[in-house]
Design brief:
Helices cover 5% and strands 31% of the residues. The model has no long low-confidence stretch (mean pLDDT 86).
């Protein structure tokens, strides 16, 4: 076994090695909830089982900001 790969835990760098480079955490949701500013990443294995990581940023916001435009029910006014 070369390493353990896990996900679903935010890391600001997109991916992060821990435990003596035996465990890598990958997070593929950049700028989580439009407020964290984290990078996203994915990992590929080549035919020699070499690990390659690709980092990416969140896409720029476009159109309506749904969080601001959501109407509140009358009982919160």
């Amino acid at each position: 076994m070369k390493c353990i790969v896990r996900s679903h835990s935010i890391v600001m760098e997109g991916y992060k090695w821990t435990h003596g480079d035996n465990l890598v955490t990958i997070y593929s949701a950049p700028n989580y909830c439009q407020r964290c500013g984290n990078k996203g990443a994915f990992m590929e294995l080549d035919e020699n089982i070499e690990l390659n990581f690709t980092l990416f940023e969140a896409a720029p916001k476009q159109g309506i900001n749904f969080m601001k435009s959501k109407l509140k029910p009358d009982y919160f006014i």
